[in-house]
Structure prediction request, 188 residues.
Amino acid sequence: MKTISEKTTIAELGAIVCEALKKVGIDAFLSGGAVVSIYTDNRYESYDLDFVSLADRSKIKKVMEELGFNQDKSRLFIHPKSKFYVEFPGSAMRVGESLISEFEELKLPSGTLKLLTPTDCVKDRLAAFYHWNDRQGLDQAVWVAVAQAVNLSEIKKWSKSEGASTKYEEFLAALKQEQSAAKKTHPK
Prediction:
């Protein structure tokens, strides 16, 4: 297993954690801002890795300690050689009201990182925009949709089921504006 150092990237750290958990039979996937960082090549830079797992928290804590992390009073796992911290905020296998059934896997030298698909990452960010008017969530959803192939018809259908068809149209308008700006900046 690769060791954690100051140079370990967010994706590499995620893979190290996934591999260590998998070795003891714990299934976990990366969600949240770290996925945005990975999919946008750090256009949005996150310093926390939010993992979702149904596993017992004491088993997770043992694995994290074996990797050299210490848990602070809040529930964050901090490693002395990493600028990133790891959290297991919950066990919700959902984006909004929809179950997550497919995942992306990135194979890295440090292991395999299991994470939200680009489409589910966009939905995750849009959920914050739809339900809490989080404009940063909208921006992040747009950035991921520009940087990665996503299923817009699936996102539209999901948005309707979330009662957010009007906000979906706002997302589409922002996406088209960002795509237009990207074409002007990087003409073929």
